């Protein structure tokens, strides 16, 4: 899965050409604005693919971004490839930062795109109030920010349909831009005990992935620890 580890993943390429991570100036022309947004979305998919590929490398070692790599007395663990894990983590961190910055660019570009027609019509005759139409809603950009590691039997997570390997894109009101290393997910769970939470996940199907909208209700009476019965790992 993904490209060999020795490849320069911090400068993703498409068709053999490096993808420029600097934002071009968006044109006031509607077509150019749409092309700009599509280019940003393409870069987003590339970055997500790189992050997912590197996260899979960590998965093969049974670790994540927070797993300790030393023993209790400070020596490197001898049961894992510490050097490769450190290298992989070092590559993931700037990619995640780039993805967050890129998603901010996408949101700005979408707002500018929808505001553009209104701003360019200053010289046109105002339309009658009854003829005005509401601007289209701004699409929500949802990127993977966590992966389901374990789901315990008979837990709220299992009842909701969560499965190990599911990639979380939205957890209630929490997403890739505000999860704060999953701290906001914990807050969301506490605030919704015995109340349903909408969870959007991406799940592998055949050679691709499919988004699924699940409903998870945190509760304590399921017979295990916690209120979810699953483990989430941040990406």
Automatic annotation (TrEMBL):
Record carries keyword Cell inner membrane: no
Domain PDZ GRASP-type: 140-232
GO biological process: proteasome regulatory particle assembly
UniProt keyword terms in alphabetical order: Chaperone, Proteasome
Residue spans of biased composition, Polar residues class: 18-31
Top-level taxon of the source organism: Eukaryota
Low complexity biased stretches: 115-133
Domain Nas2 N-terminal: 39-115
InterPro entries, per database record: GRASP_PDZ, Nas2_N, PDZ_sf, PSMD9
Annotated spans, Disordered: 1-31, 113-135
One annotated Gene Ontology cellular component of this protein: proteasome complex
PANTHER family tied to this protein: 26S PROTEASOME NON-ATPASE REGULATORY SUBUNIT 9
This protein's name: Probable 26S proteasome regulatory subunit p27
Species of origin: Orbilia brochopaga
């Amino acid at each position: 899965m993904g490209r060999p580890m020795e490849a320069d993943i911090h400068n993703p390429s498409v068709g053999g050409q490096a993808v420029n991570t600097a934002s071009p100036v968006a044109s006031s022309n509607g077509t150019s604005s749409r092309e700009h947004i599509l280019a940003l979305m393409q870069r987003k998919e590339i970055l997500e693919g790189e992050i997912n590929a590197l996260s899979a490398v960590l998965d093969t070692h049974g670790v994540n971004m927070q797993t300790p790599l030393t023993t209790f007395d400070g020596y490197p663990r001898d049961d894992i490839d510490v050097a490769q894990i450190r290298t992989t983590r070092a590559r993931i961190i700037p990619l995640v930062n780039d993805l967050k910055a890129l998603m901010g660019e996408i949101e700005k570009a979408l707002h500018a795109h929808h505001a553009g027609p209104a701003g360019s019509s200053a010289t046109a005759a105002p339309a009658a109030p009854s003829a005005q139409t509401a601007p289209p809603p701004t699409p929500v950009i949802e990127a993977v920010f966590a992966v389901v590691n374990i789901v315990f039997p008979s837990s709220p997570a299992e009842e909701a349909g969560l499965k190990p390997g599911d990639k979380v894109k939205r957890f209630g009101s929490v997403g890739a831009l505000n999860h704060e290393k999953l701290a906001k997910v914990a807050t969301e769970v506490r605030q919704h005990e015995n109340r349903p939470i909408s969870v959007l996940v991406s799940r592998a199907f055949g050679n691709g992935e499919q988004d699924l909208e699940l409903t998870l209700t945190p509760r304590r009476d399921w017979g295990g620890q916690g209120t979810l019965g699953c483990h989430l790992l941040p990406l």
